[in-house]
Each structure stands twice: as structure tokens, then as C-alpha cells.
Design brief:
It comes from Petromyzon marinus. Its EC number is 2.1.1.-, 3.1.3.-. GO terms for molecular function: metal ion binding; phosphatase activity; protein carboxyl O-methyltransferase activity. It is a single chain. This protein has 14 helices and 7 strands. The protein is of the alpha/beta class and 339 residues long. Strands 1-7-6-5-2-3-4 form a 7-stranded mixed sheet, with helices on both faces. The radius of gyration is 19 Å and the shape is globular. 40% of the residues are buried. It binds 6-O-phosphono-beta-D-fructofuranose. The site of 6-O-phosphono-beta-D-fructofuranose has 14 residues, from helix 12.
């Protein structure tokens, strides 16, 4: 399939969601209604067991966080980064709107899933975070993390859990979240989804859930968490054109020390949705997009992947012809260098 075809398909997908939004805007009583909100909320409710077990885990970590040594903090970071990565499996657009909740505890299966992480640059992400501590432990200089969100429901919850851990462990000082300004790819996060998640947790009768909900509301109020929803994220453009098309957003991202891009669609836009050779360097596929150090956390759901070792794609294809689209494999792919 030529590369123009996959890019054209991305335009069609983006156009479709814009038309849904347009239809709603033309029906005044419904113009604020998110047609996908019921599905998103159901996926959150259906993941309750996993959410509660993760709340309990995070609660225990927060209780002892000031006494953890560096290795313990690193181990916890690795674990929660993987939870956040696999949260991207719970996507309503890959399941065509059908239920795709997280039923089991997200922590128990992590070891078995390690072999499915085709590229794991966790060490480079950790080094970026650690750099701040090493350089100047008592520095008042702010380390800013940005998270370009993907799906609401369980995935958003895992993003907020990682964000809480990074803030509480003082690895980062401020977190900026980027969501969508309109209902998008069925389950993508809007501001209403963030508010829904925080309010529902606050109202829970489970101790740690309500405590975390209240903490997250105060982070959003005191500015340690900031939510943005620039229109660019709902345009079909590849990210290498962001600087020209949305210079204000590019300038905002340049203020970040590290940007996490969640999910498959962000990966497609980072790499221009081209059919790159699988061994192409990530930096090459980014085509000059480099507002800051960045990392993609992505379960593979579309037919592209760069940065693999020679021969790896062939081995994967022989073992599982659907490896690029099944959502069973994932990458934690980091780039710090400008090409
Ligand atoms: O929610 P994610 O991880 O961005 O996945 C979205 C992906 O799902 C699909 O809509 C269907 O698999 C892809 O076209 C798209 O890239």
C-alpha cells in the first residue's frame, strides 16, 4: 500500500468525527452533548475492579513515598509506566465501540507482558527524569512533564496514576495534560472526561479512590496539573507540520522537559502515518518534530512501526501476521535527539 493511502485514510477518519460534531452543533439542544460519553463512562465503570486495585496500590506507595530510596522509586516508576502503556489496550475505537474494559488487576500480568514490548526505552525516560535530581537536587527550577492524552476510561485513569506518582515522588514539578476539544475517535479524552473521572473518584466510598479524587481536583485547582485542549490535536496533520500550522501549541510544548505521547493515533501522527521501513530510526520518522525530549507509549493498532532491529519485523510476521494491528504488542519509544 503506498504511503499516501494510509495518510489519506487518516484524513477520512478525522473528517468523519468532525462531521459527527457538525451534526450535533446543528441541533441546538444537543450541541454540548458528547455522543460517545455513555460508552466512555461505561468503560470506566466496567473497569472498577482494576481501578480500585490500582488506587489501593498507589495509596500504599504514597504512604511510604518519602522513605523510598532511589532504586525503589525507579522500580515503582517502571511498573506504573508499564501500567500506563498497557492502559492503551483499552480503546473503544479498536473494538468499534464494543466493551473493552480492564477486568484484572493491571499490576499482576506485567511480567508476562514484558516480552510484548518490542522497544523499551524506559531507561532513557528515567535518565531524563533523574537528570533533574542529579544536576541540582535542591533546585527550585521546575521540571515540566506534558502528557498528550489518548483514551478516557481506564487508560486516562492510568495516566493520572502515573502523574500522581511522578509529582508525589518529586521527579516532576508540574504536569500539563493535552486532550481533545471535541468528541474524537470514540473514546479520546475531553475536558468533561477528566472532570467526570475526578468527580466520580471523589464521590466513591472506597477510601483511596475518594482521597485520590480530592487530591487530583486540588492539583487542577492549584496549577500543579494543567489541562489544555488545542484544536490541532483534532486536525489530521502530521506533527512535523505543527510548528507551521499551530506555532502557539509548538511553543507551549517547547516549554516541556519531557512529553509523553499516549496511544496509536499519536504515533501515526508523530511518524507522519507513512509506511517507513521498520528499521528506520524514530528520529528520522519524526521528520524534525522535536519540541522537547519525547516518548511514545503505544499499543500497536495500525500498520506502521519504526526503530526495530533488523530482522525483527520478519520474525514477528512469521509468528503473528497481525502483530501490527492486534493491540497485543507495544512500544515505549524515546527520542531526545534532533535529526
Ligand atoms: O486510541 P488509539 O491508541 O490512539 O488508537 C486509535 C487507533 O484505532 C483505530 O481507529 C482502529 O484500530 C486506528 O485507526 C487508530 O490509529
Amino acid at each position: 500500500m503506498p504511503s499516501w493511502f494510509t495518510s489519506a485514510w487518516l484524513y477520512v477518519e478525522c473528517y468523519m468525527y468532525r462531521r459527527v460534531q457538525e451534526a450535533m452543533a446543528l441541533c441546538p439542544p444537543l450541541n454540548d452533548h458528547d455522543v460517545f460519553s455513555e460508552l466512555k463512562q461505561k468503560s470506566f465503570f466496567d473497569s472498577q475492579k482494576a481501578i480500585i486495585s490500582l488506587c489501593d496500590h498507589l495509596g500504599e506507595v504514597l504512604n511510604k513515598i518519602s522513605g523510598l530510596n532511589k532504586d525503589e522509586v525507579k522500580k515503582e516508576f517502571q511498573q506504573l509506566l508499564q501500567v500506563c502503556l498497557w492502559g492503551n489496550k483499552c480503546d473503544l475505537s479498536i473494538s468499534a465501540g464494543k466493551d473493552n474494559p480492564q477486568k484484572a488487576s493491571p499490576l499482576t500480568g506485567l511480567n508476562d507482558l514484558k516480552a510484548k514490548i518490542l522497544i523499551d526505552d524506559t531507561e532513557a525516560v528515567w535518565a531524563t527524569l533523574e537528570d533533574k535530581l542529579k544536576k541540582n537536587p535542591s533546585s527550585t527550577q521546575c521540571f515540566r512533564l506534558d502528557i498528550v492524552l489518548d483514551n478516557a476510561g481506564f487508560e486516562l485513569f492510568t495516566d493520572l496514576v502515573l502523574a500522581e506518582f511522578l509529582l508525589a515522588s518529586k521527579l516532576v514539578d508540574q504536569i500539563h495534560f493535552h486532550g481533545k476539544c471535541m468528541p474524537w475517535f470514540i473514546s479520546d479524552v475531553t475536558k468533561e472526561d477528566v472532570n467526570f473521572t475526578v468527580h466520580l473518584l471523589m464521590a466513591s466510598n472506597h477510601r483511596w479512590s475518594s482521597k485520590l479524587g480530592a487530591t487530583w481536583r486540588s492539583h487542577l485547582q492549584d496549577g500543579s496539573w494543567v489541562y489544555h485542549d488545542h484544536m490541532f490535536w483534532t486536525f489530521p496533520h502530521e506533527y512535523c507540520s505543527m510548528e507551521a500550522i499551530a506555532p502557539d501549541l509548538y511553543a507551549e510544548l517547547k516549554r516541556s522537559n519531557l512529553i509523553l505521547f499516549k496511544g496509536d493515533l499519536n504515533y501515526r501522527k508523530l511518524t507522519g502515518d507513512r509506511q517507513w521501513d521498520h528499521t528506520t530510526a524514530f528520529e528520522t520518522a519524526l521528520q524534525g518534530f522535536h519540541p522537547s525530549a519525547l516518548c511514545s507509549l503505544r499499543a500497536l493498532k495500525a500498520d506502521l512501526q519504526v526503530g526495530l532491529q533488523p530482522g525483527m519485523a520478519e520474525i514477528l510476521t512469521a509468528a503473528d501476521p497481525d502483530w501490527m494491528v492486534s493491540g497485543e504488542y507495544a512500544v515505549i519509544q524515546f527520542s531526545d535527539a534532533k535529526q
